[in-house]
């Protein structure tokens, strides 16, 4: 009965959509199989976690009330009184952290395998935009519970933005909706988090996935010069897709365990008139930048030390995003070494500074 119903649904859809052509294309699309092909799956993991974010975010929106007098109370009501509300909120928060982690891993895997090189420059650039939007999700969503840690961490984060020369204070006031963090800031961050950023993310993600389908999956450098018979591949559908779905199931179990064993705390309601508690720091994915700024002296050649640090991070981020273009200008023999050394230094710097910040 179920099989007959399923066939009827597929038949109905096939008469209206090119499902057969899509399946046929997927069967002929090949995915390289080698020792490093495990990194291919982290893009799919990030996609699954984004879907989880959307689903749990919509559920949380049904009870959330943005406002300095209502935000914290609505979150507490969801966690305490709504059936499984605490679980949905924990899954939403944990999946946000895991998604950013998966995007970072995916980015570094693409970097070290040189998958950003011609003709995949646009795929790399769209991926960098997605990473920036993920960080925007984390920054804007952190304030929404309107608890003490979120309030003062946002105050510190937006103050760092203000150190950007010329435009820093203007950007800070646009983010805050005024001179200081308050009800206007919460409203703006809520709008960014549930409307602006999801819309931008969906459009860029669609372009990113389309580019991957058009260009195919990057083949390892070790395959250069090899005959087709020496290259081991597998069909994208159903082989790769089923493996991807299996990993999604594993990630879902990990997410459920984290949400149940380590539920996210509500904290205490923010009091703008209170003094900042000790140990305020940003979330782990901003911690390496926050920690690095501590090592800059107050003045560097007459300029504010934090401003110099922000400028250096901006230039560094721009150079990282444009790696397909400056990499192409390096001598052929030097390209692999330079890119590898730069990547290793960046990874070690992030790990060390984050570790110091967490200690």
Shape: globular
Low-confidence stretches: none
CATH class category label of the largest domain:
Mainly Alpha
Second rung of CATH, namely the architecture of the largest domain: Up-down Bundle
H/E series: HHEHHHHHHHEHHEEHHH
Verbal overview:
The structure is a single chain. The chain is mainly α and 359 residues long. It has 14 helices and four strands. It has helices at 2-14, 19-28, 41-61, 71-80, 85-112, 121-143, 148-162, 168-176, 183-215, 236-261, 284-293, 305-321, 323-328, 332-358, and strands at residues 30-32, 233-235, 299-300, 303-304. Helix 3 crosses helix 10. The radius of gyration is 23 Å and the shape is globular. It starts with a helix and ends with a helix.
Which descriptors would you attach to this protein?
two-stranded antiparallel sheet, Cytochrome Bc1 Complex, Chain C, mainly alpha
Secondary structure elements and pairings:
Elements: H1 2-14, H2 19-28, E1 30-32, H3 41-61, H4 71-80, H5 85-112, H6 121-143, H7 148-162, H8 168-176, H9 183-215, E2 233-235, H10 236-261, H11 284-293, E3 299-300, E4 303-304, H12 305-321, H13 323-328, H14 332-358
Give a brief rundown of this model:
The chain is mainly α and 359 residues long. The chain has 14 helices and four strands.
């Amino acid at each position: 009965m179920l099989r007959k119903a399923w066939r009827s649904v597929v038949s109905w859809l096939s008469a209206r959509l090119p499902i057969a052509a899509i399946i046929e294309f997927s069967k002929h699309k090949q995915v390289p199989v080698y020792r490093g092909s495990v990194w291919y799956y982290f893009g799919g993991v990030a996609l699954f976690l984004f879907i989880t974010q959307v689903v749990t975010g919509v559920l949380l929106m049904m009870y959330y009330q943005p406002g300095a007098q209502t935000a914290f109370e609505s979150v507490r009501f969801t966690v305490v009184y709504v059936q499984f509300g605490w679980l949905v909120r924990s899954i939403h928060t944990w999946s946000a952290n895991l998604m950013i982690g998966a995007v970072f891993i995916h980015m570094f895997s693409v970097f070290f395998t040189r998958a950003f090189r011609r003709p995949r420059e646009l795929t790399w650039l769209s991926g960098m935009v997605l990473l920036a939007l993920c960080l925007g999700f984390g920054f804007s969503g952190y304030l929404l519970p309107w608890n003490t840690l979120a309030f003062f961490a946002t105050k510190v984060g937006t103050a760092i933005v203000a150190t950007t020369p010329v435009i820093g204070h203007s950007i800070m006031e646009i983010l805050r909706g005024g001179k200081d963090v308050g009800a206007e800031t919460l409203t703006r961050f809520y709008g960014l988090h549930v409307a602006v950023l999801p819309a931008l993310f969906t459009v860029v993600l669609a372009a990113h996935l389309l580019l991957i389908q058009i260009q195919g999956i990057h083949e390892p450098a070790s395959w250069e010069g090899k005959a087709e018979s020496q290259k081991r591949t597998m069909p994208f559908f159903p082989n790769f897709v089923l493996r991807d779905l299996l990993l999604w199931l594993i990630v879902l179990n990990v997410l459920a365990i984290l949400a149940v064993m380590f539920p996210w705390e509500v904290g205490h309601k923010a009091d703008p008139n209170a003094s900042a508690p000790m140990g305020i720091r940003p979330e782990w994915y901003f911690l390496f930048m926050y920690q690095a700024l501590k090592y800059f002296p107050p003045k560097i050649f007459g300029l504010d030390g934090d401003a110099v640090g922000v400028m250096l991070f901006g230039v560094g981020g721009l150079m990282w995003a444009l790696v397909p273009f400056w990499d192409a200008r390096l001598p052929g023999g030097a390209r692999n070494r330079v890119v590898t050394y730069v990547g290793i230094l960046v990874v070690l710097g992030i790990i060390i500074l984050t570790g110091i910040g967490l200690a």
